[in-house]
Write a structure and sequence with these properties.
ten-stranded mixed beta sheet, alpha+beta, single chain, 28 strands, five-stranded antiparallel beta sheet, 13 helices, globular
Length: 588
């Protein structure tokens, strides 16, 4: 028996209406002949267009092409097309949370009452009939790398029989769940064409009539893993909110700030588990997308591409042709040397003699114009019609996938920045204390960062005893949310480490943030992309920013990877003893 195949990243599938008001979303089945392929996560983009809803779903699969299969219930009027992986790449990069730490260094040995100066440093990082039960095939066609079929079945038995007879993969053990969709839905079945490769798998676009956006999760539960990530983007006129799931603000004192907050997903998982039934979402970003989205455009003219005859002619344009939807076209127009494939040539063009490898530039230009540019134009139009982007994230385990989350637009809710900041106080005594935005503080412990940072394993929290959810609230279609739980006061009271030597808490006299008397000057530097210095009198703050674009990963929903790396903690430990020097006044 072949080993089960696993998803390498980002997506589960798509589902359909459970109720007339619920719209299509993930809940499809990745499967092979033995058992469903494990779903590692989901990325979905919703966009409203009048009475129509458009949804884009990213598919990720790791296994032989012959064993790829996708079956999903869908609304009866569904239209299916191809989407583009660059859509997800750009949204992931542009809207992921960014975690940065502002260092503040005590001025040690100075006269009492000396202000700290004011320095400004900013690190930038910013998817009925009668008689004998049967199956009606409503549409059958080639769709990019897929053979796509839309069919209607009278019952689940004839559906499964049709899939087996036509050699489409089916999800074993899911018959009971599929039966719930038979009366209200059609089914979309996908498999790869005979000449398609796994790397050709493209995102899918669905368009259908529905008043709301929903994610049916019951089908997803068949092949989901513990704490499976679900990343939802909603394009609309204003902020999107979950209407039947709770909304969570996380307790960010449990992040490992000095190491770049790599445990963000663990924190979200633990916070969501504290909601009723483990059903909740956090908002990673909400705001106008003009600053984070660039329209999809071809960086070279079609006429220039049409004039390409050899690989040597094509090489100058490789940077403009790196879109995943263009790669299969490139393979089809390259005539590789004997014994190698076109993919080999694209992977290592310098390994061959480019001037003797033929390229059909005219076909390349014609296919890009016919197949790719219309796809890009349709995606760009969604962003023009919908100026606001919301990014929602959660993790769920199969046992929690019992209610379909539904999303709506609430015009009364405020924006949510992707920038998450904390302050690190480096004292004359060598101690480092981290303070989060709500005023909660913890003492960093040498090179170990935050010893209370939350950690999860196998769907359970194994470190971190404080509430992971700062606030749990119930969102509405209009107006402000109803607060269900507010742990803010308890968290601040429980995490109030004293500031290190050289700083005083607000309300004290002498040296202190915002309370010092006299004149002082200081400089702060931001490591990353910002740097600033300045003078302050009385109420000064020595301030510098540490940031930079970090790399999120694996549907992580965060830029925690490189924004404040472990080297930053080493820098603090290194600089702390220097703060004892009597003349120390520079954060170098």
């Amino acid at each position: 028996m072949p080993a089960p195949r696993a998803l390498s990243s980002a997506l589960a599938g798509i589902g359909a209406l459970l109720l007339p008001a619920a719209a299509l979303a993930c809940g499809g089945f990745f499967c092979n002949n033995q058992q469903p392929v494990i779903q590692a996560g989901e990325r979905i983009v919703f966009a409203a267009d009048g009475e129509q809803t458009e949804m884009h779903v990213q598919i990720a699969y790791d296994g032989p092409p012959s064993e790829f299969g996708w079956l999903l219930p869908a609304p009866p009027d569904v239209e299916v097309g191809l989407s583009n992986a660059t859509l997800f790449d750009r949204l992931d990069t542009g809207s992921a949370p960014q975690f940065s730490v502002d260092p503040r260094f005590a001025r040690c040995g100075g006269a009492e009452g000396e202000g700290e100066g004011e320095g400004e440093g900013e690190g930038e990082g910013e998817g009925e009939g009668e008689g004998e039960p049967g199956v009606d095939v409503l549409e059958r066609r080639a769709l990019g790398p897929f053979e796509q079929v839309i069919l209607r079945a009278d019952n689940v038995d004839v559906l499964v029989e049709w899939l087996e007879e036509n050699e489409f993969q089916r999800p074993l053990g899911a018959e009971e769940i599929l039966a719930d969709y038979v009366e209200t839905s059609v089914f979309v079945a996908l498999r790869l064409l005979a000449d398609a490769e796994v790397q050709d798998i493209a995102p899918i676009r669905f368009r259908y009539t529905a008043p709301t956006m929903a994610i049916p999760l019951r089908p997803t539960s068949v092949a989901a893993m513990r704490d499976m990530g679900i990343l939802v983007y909603v394009l609309g006129e204003a902020r999107a909110v979950p209407l039947n799931y709770l909304h969570v603000q996380v307790n960010d004192v449990l992040l490992d700030w000095l190491r770049g907050s790599p445990n963000y997903i663990d924190l979200v998982s633990a916070a969501v588990d504290e909601t009723e039934g483990g059903r909740g979402f956090v908002t990673d970003f909400a705001g106008r997308h003009a600053s984070i989205w660039q329209p999809l455009r071809l960086g070279v003219s079609l006429d220039r591409l049409a004039g390409v005859n050899t690989l040597a002619d094509l090489l100058p344009f490789f940077g403009q042709l790196d879109d995943p939807s263009i790669r299969p076209i490139l393979r089809s127009v390259i005539t590789p040397p004997d014994g190698v494939t076109a993919e080999d040539v694209l992977t290592c063009p310098d390994c061959f003699e480019p001037q003797i490898i033929a390229v059909d530039g005219q076909t390349l230009a014609d296919r890009i114009e016919a197949e790719v540019l219309p796809q890009w134009q349709a995606i760009n139009a969604l962003f023009v019609r919908n100026p606001y982007l919301t990014r929602l994230f959660t993790t769920m385990s199969p046992r929690e996938m019992t209610v379909d989350p539904i999303f709506g637009i609430n015009r009364d809710m405020p924006d949510v920045s992707r920038a998450r900041r904390a302050t690190a106080y480096v004292g004359c005594d060598g101690r480092v204390v981290v303070e989060t935005a709500i005023g909660a503080r913890y003492a960093a412990e040498g090179r170990t960062g935050n010893s209370q940072a939350i950690i999860r394993q196998d769907g359970a929290t194994v470190r971190g005893g404080a509430p992971a959810a700062l606030v749990i609230e119930r969102m509405m279609a209009a107006g402000q949310p109803e607060v269900v739980v507010d742990n803010t006061a308890d968290v601040v009271a429980g995490y109030f480490a004293p500031l290190p030597e050289g700083f005083e808490d607000p309300g004290g006299e002498g040296e202190g943030e915002g309370e010092g008397e006299g004149e002082g000057e200081g400089e702060g530097e931001g490591e990353g992309e910002g740097e600033g210095e300045g003078e302050g009198e009385g109420e000064g703050e020595g301030d510098g920013g540490v940031g930079g674009d970090g790399g999120g990963g694996g549907g992580c929903a965060c830029d925690a990877g490189d924004s404040t790396p472990s080297g930053w903690l080493a820098l603090l430990v290194l600089l702390a003893p220097l703060a004892r020097r009597p003349r120390f006044n520079r954060a170098r």
